[in-house]
# Entry
Amino acid sequence: MVKVTILLSSVLGLLSSLNVSAKTEYTGDIINGHKVISKLDVSDFPLNSLTKLWLQMPRQVNGQAYHVPVIVAKGKQDGNRFLMNSGLHGDELNGIRVVQRVLHDIDLSKLKGVVVGVPGANVNGMYESTRWFTNKEDSGSHVNLNREMPGEPNKGSFGQRYAAHLWSSVYGSNNFTVVCDFHTTSTSGTFPNFVYADLTVPYVYRITELTGADIVKIDLGVTALGSVESTFGKKGIPVITYEIGNAKFWQKDQIQRGYDYSFRQIADLDMYPKTTDPAKIETYEKQRKNIYYGNEFLDTNVKTGGFVELYAKPMDIVKTDQIIGTMFDVFGSKVEDFYPKADGLILSTNVNPLMTAGSFIVTVIRNSTDPACINGC
Ligand SMILES: [Zn+2]
# Structure
């Protein structure tokens, strides 16, 4: 039996050294010194390695492909797999810096398993400085990549194919144990440190604790079908959408919170040692105890266009008789006061004074006692 085991392990070792089972597809191109792939399978990569790659995407109108940056950190031993995705909306930049910093600082000799980072998934959106993926055919159209997962290869618009390729080539092809999709609010909005989480998926409640976020929205994801979160969640894979602050900024405090969460996350998955820094532990324990779990959003919207002065900010506790904004016409005459739709906590504000009919001014989050809202309304 011992001999058989030795023989088997040596055969497996030989197969591994020959890379016979390789599934990562290399195009043969090299850009800025990094290899280009069309599909990622992290099981091909050697232990104790950090690899920066370009994922070749569908081709643009001029026949040139977009390339999405991917970083693979593989530890000294096999173990769990953590995916850190960012920039799926092209104006949401804080998460990109989280991915860069975590993958730069991670000590491979202490890592057990694999961390994959995507520092900026929507290359088109970053070129255009917008959350959308912009299709250029006809008069142009917008695709929300975070509503198109898993998609179907070679079907739909350019943006839909781009989303499908991200899914089939990285997100959905690597048996990730836990997934964090980093976002921020959209341009002109404000967010605190905030998480969307479907608490019916095993281990997701624990992830929300590990974030130490200001607010967790308990959410089944039914209004965000096709998101990275809902697509992994449907498969029972623990996942959160982690909204770290505002668009078009690199906010150091928000980035630090995403960074610290990521190391707590891999420690909780037995992939990395826990921090022993007393200051970090104390800060986190305070944050964890103060997380607000809410299950319902209520927006205050304007009925017509005009200029709005705001009197509220995220994390303010507000009541329905409190003025949170006033609309003025272009001559400065008051048009209307606005109030929150419910008593609760301000989650988000619209800081662009120029409002069009239907624009939201503030979003309040509260904890509805309606039994139908227990997993989110
Ligand atoms: Zn987003």
